[in-house]
């Protein structure tokens, strides 16, 4: 019965479109499919480059697992739903963020969440070191010393009220420290603080509350022990 109904339905649809040829022609200038094209940009959740317990000395396993599988996964899912629903057609992340002021808060918040966390995971490693070569020179040049840089970055992370992110960016050839609220990032045209992100720190409570509770300063102090200076250097180029 079902298949007969379906066949009838299809037959009816065909005859409907044949009798409304004018309307069909009008639609010819529009995209054929209501959904966004197959080759349109979509966000992806990058594979975590280490195990959930790899950063245990600074970030506990349960926090990492919930952060990655629940929070981050949801941002990726929701931004891609927004891209579909709002028919956002862009070629890249960069293009998505450079026009974010024209999009919904769903696209902005979840797009930021998807990108920021992908970057955040690669900013950390179980085998940390200290900056060397060009990135060390750039930090010393911009902030005086590595210790001074850490002090300023830590200050920015403690003074970010509520949820947000702290960044080291390259802007017009210079390194700068700044922070953004919620899931905003320095690639967004809507952000007051702009630049190319080199290093990111998540200061949302979900990033540290299970291990550190209200003590954001302890979380940040320990986070320095897992920073991946190799990937920061790569992004500097
Ligand atoms: Mn987070």
Note down, in words, how this protein is organized.
This protein has a single domain (60-237), classed as minor pseudopilin epsh fold (3-Layer(bab) Sandwich). Helix content is 50%, strand content 10%. It has 10 helices and 3 strands; from the N terminus they run αααααααβββααα. A 3-stranded antiparallel β-sheet has the order 2-1-3. Helix 3 (61-85) runs antiparallel to helix 5 and helix 6 crosses helix 7. The protein is globular, with a radius of gyration of 23 Å. Mean pLDDT is 88; it is low at 1-36.
Give a brief outline of the structure.
With 237 residues, the protein is mainly alpha-helical.
Keywords for this entry:
237 residues; mainly alpha; minor pseudopilin epsh fold; three-stranded antiparallel β-sheet; 10 helices; 10% strand; globular; binds manganese (III) ion
Note the topology:
Layout: H1 2-19, H2 21-27, H3 61-85, H4 93-98, H5 105-122, H6 133-143, H7 146-159, E1 164-171, E2 174-181, E3 196-202, H8 209-212, H9 216-223, H10 229-236
Antiparallel strand pairs: 1-2, 1-3
Helix pairs in contact: 3-5, 6-7
This protein binds manganese (III) ion.
């Amino acid at each position: 019965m079902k298949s007969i109904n379906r066949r009838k339905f299809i037959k009816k649809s065909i005859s409907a479109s044949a009798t409304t040829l004018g309307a069909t022609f009008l639609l010819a200038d529009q995209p054929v499919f209501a959904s966004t094209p197959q080759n349109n940009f979509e966000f992806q959740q990058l594979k975590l480059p280490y195990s959930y317990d790899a950063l245990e000395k600074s970030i506990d396993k349960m926090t990492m697992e919930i952060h990655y599988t629940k929070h981050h996964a949801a941002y990726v899912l929701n931004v891609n739903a927004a891209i579909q629903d709002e028919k956002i057609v862009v070629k890249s992340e960069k293009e998505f963020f450079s026009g974010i002021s024209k999009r919904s808060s769903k696209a902005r918040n979840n797009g930021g969440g998807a990108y920021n966390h992908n970057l955040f995971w690669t900013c950390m490693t179980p085998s940390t070191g200290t900056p060397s070569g060009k990135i060390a020179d750039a930090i010393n040049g911009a902030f005086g010393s590595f210790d001074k840089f850490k002090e300023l970055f830590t200050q920015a992370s403690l003074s970010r009220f509520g949820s947000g992110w702290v960044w080291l960016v390259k802007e017009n050839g210079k390194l700068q420290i700044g922070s953004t609220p919620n899931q905003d990032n320095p690639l967004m045209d809507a952000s007051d603080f702009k630049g190319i992100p080199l290093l990111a720190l998540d200061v949302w409570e979900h990033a540290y509350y299970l291990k550190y509770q209200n003590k954001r300063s302890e979380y940040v102090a320990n986070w320095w022990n897992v920073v991946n200076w190799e990937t920061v250097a790569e992004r500097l180029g």
